[in-house]
Amino acid sequence: MVPFLAAARRLNMKQRYGRLVVPIVILLLLSLVVVMERFGILLNPDQSGAFDLPQLTYSQAIQEDPAYLVLTSGQDSVSQTFQAMTTLVLDNLKIAYTVKEITDPDSLTALTDYQVVVLTFQNWDLLGKAILQLTDWVKQGGSLVNASTPEPSSVFQMIAGKLGIQDGGATYTSISGMSFLDTSILGADPAKVYDLLDSSRQPLQISLSVQLRDSAEVHIASEDGAVPLLWSQDYGQGRFVIMNETITDKYQRGILAYAFSLTQDVFVYPVIDGSAFYLDDFPAPVPGGDSEYIERDYGVDTATFYSSIWWPQIMKWEEDYGIVHTGLIIETYNDQVSPPFEANSAYNQLVSFGNELLKNGGELGFHGYNHQPLCLTGTDQALQLGDYKLWPSTDSMAQSLQELNRFARELFPSATFNVYVPPSNIISQTGLATLSQTLPEVKVVASSFLSDSEGKSYEQEFGLSDQGFIETPRIVSGTLLDDYQKLTALSELNFQYVQSHFMHPDDCLDPDRGAASGWAVMSQSFTEYLDWLQQAAPQIRDLTGSQMGTAVEQYTELTVSRKLTGNQLTLQLGGFTGEARLLLRLQDRQLVSLTGGSYEEITDGVYLLTLTSAQASLTLA
């Protein structure tokens, strides 16, 4: 071959190989980056999981004159129960009230000072002739609400017609379900019936059998619509709002709050405005071995299922619905409760999952060094559940928390850890005190809103605790929500405009949590819950655990004064931090304009207000 041609050929080959090598090198580098991120080596500093709890400053609180008169009776066996529920609801609606015993001579001497009277007793014969004074007051513009089903007493029968009753009211009847007929109830679907059967699957006999006049408006009814459970009846210039059920579960609070809103054509109250989703035991060591149901449906081991099927579904929910997750770290699943607490060295996949969660705008919090609830030997035996161990000392608790803190901060150095979730939602007062002393940066404790069947969970309300924590309970859990949980979720949307949910990665391994139905069924069921939430509260804020803590603190401290003059509603806020959320319910009116903030209409006659000024003016039509 001619030397010149050979040299040219060699040069051409080098150029061709060069063109091939460059993209191969780039591809290898990109693959290396993916692998490094997969194993948690990289962490995007712009989405590092840093959620600082702001130091809020509040304006001076405002005290309204009492607008509600709550009448109670020491002679009625259930009055104290319904009084407690009534005052709790009014406290959270930030409505001032006065409580009086019906036997006090002056209990009805100043009715004109109040807008609403609430009866917490069932035996209306305790009112005697005073019932005529009350009905005359309603006719002049007042509103009367009863907190539970009245007894078919002579006084009740005497005024039944004024209450909108055409026939009946002398006997009780059974109901097995509840349906919400009014679409201004957030999340309501008139075609949906919520199961109300008791623990032995028997109907409840909690309602009077009545037939109503056409002028009465039914808002909630029994499963077949035959028994009105909540109705309103205009009387003169005022209104009766009648509760025809005796439920005292937590989901009754939203129903009672809605009943109060029916007393006035313009009703406004502060709300949390937040939706949070928690992944308990995540990130955590992935269980090894095969699951019966995963093997049955997918033919893979547990670790592969989590990385290839479960986690992509979590990410899809975030993408489709805009939700963010707060993951609660477990370092190890050993049951050790005495030091030394060994560090977990097998954490590659744990870091990978954690980093992906953070990059999607999520947050990490603490769950435990292991899954042993912080309950102390000698004092907390009543809280011991199953095979869980009690801790021998507060020092042992503290050392385990310190190891968890070291572990989490080493793996996620830019993250902040403000949120703690008790293992199995169980923690004692001693455990809470130890948590506060050991990890003072933890300001938010998220346990359970509902009690468990064993009565061992740390049951919370939204608010501030005596230990100084912000309490942000999770309302519902799992993927297969029963009607009780769905009722509670609906109730809290209408009460505090809040949603909070948690699940575990191993829900799909546990038959008690529905694993036998398979992950496809479980994930579809939860997708339906997310669809319901998106339809019921499309404007609700998606928050992490820390953000929920800030929202709850602002809500707890907020006070409000309301003044309605014609078509002008003036709101004055106390305990104000610069932003507040309120829900406005209107009957036969519309919101035309708002100064001092902004608003969005959630559904007909229901508005979410975002106020940025301590005084706001609303024009209605």
Task: Report on the architecture of this protein.
The protein is an alpha/beta fold and 621 residues long. It is built from 13 helices and 29 strands. The protein has a 9-stranded mixed β-sheet with strand order 2-1-3-4-11-10-9-6-7, sandwiched between helices. Strands 13, 14, 15, 20, 21 and 22 form a 6-stranded parallel β-sheet that branches. Strands 12-25-28-27 form a 4-stranded antiparallel β-sheet, with no helix packed on it. A hairpin with a 2-residue loop joins strand 27 (597-603) and strand 28. The radius of gyration is 29 Å and the shape is globular.
Write the SSE topology.
Elements: H1 3-38, E1 68-72, H2 79-93, E2 97-101, E3 116-119, H3 130-139, E4 143-146, H4 154-159, E5 165-175, E6 177-180, E7 194-195, E8 204-212, E9 217-222, E10 228-235, E11 238-243, H5 252-261, E12 266-270, E13 274-279, H6 292-298, H7 302-321, E14 325-330, H8 348-359, E15 363-368, H9 394-411, E16 419-420, H10 429-438, E17 444-445, E18 463-464, E19 470-471, E20 476-477, H11 483-495, E21 498-503, H12 519-536, E22 542-543, H13 545-557, E23 559-565, E24 568-574, E25 580-586, E26 591-595, E27 597-603, E28 606-611, E29 615-620
Parallel strand pairs: 1-2, 1-3, 3-4, 4-11, 13-14, 13-21, 13-22, 14-15, 16-17, 17-19, 20-21
Antiparallel strand pairs: 5-8, 6-7, 6-9, 9-10, 10-11, 12-25, 18-19, 23-24, 24-29, 25-28, 26-29, 27-28
Helix pairs in contact: 2-5, 5-11, 7-12, 9-10
Mean pLDDT: 93
Query: Which structural category do the helix and sheet elements fall into?
Result: alpha/beta
Write out the strand line-up for the largest beta sheet, numbering strands in chain order: 2-1-3-4-11-10-9-6-7
Helical segment count: 13
The percentage of residues in β strands lies in 15-25%
Major β-sheet, in short?
Answer: 9 strands, mixed
Report low-confidence residues grouped into runs of 5 or more. 1-9, 29-47
Query: How many beta strands in the DSSP annotation?
Result: 29
What would you call the shape?
globular
The Cα radius of gyration reads 29 Å
